[in-house]
Amino acid sequence: MNTPLLSASSMRDFSVKNIEGKDIGEIKDLVVDWNDGKVAYAVLSFGGFMGLGEKLFAIPLDQFSFDTKNEELVLNVSKERLKDAPGFDKDNWPQYPDAEFINSVYRHYSASPACRKQG
Fold it and tell me: Where is the signal peptide, in residue numbers (predicted)?
């Protein structure tokens, strides 16, 4: 499957499904490393009701796939792995540069970092 080019603004509030096809949240933002122009991670909103009690998760882009047939973003991560994922609340985003947070995100998903900042 070819992944289309998507603008960052089109991904905001993009609905995300799990591998079973159930809605699990939405993309709130993309965090970009200005040193190399790559997206460090997507911010997924999960849980809560009308913004209350929601938790935000930092997830590397390679953990998602785009279903071109249904035009849906799919998170290829188990519910158990997501529950233990590095996250933060909407009023307390990680401060940048925070190499330890970014590295913990990539370690959690056994992913290769898109960016590593020397601290």
Answer: none
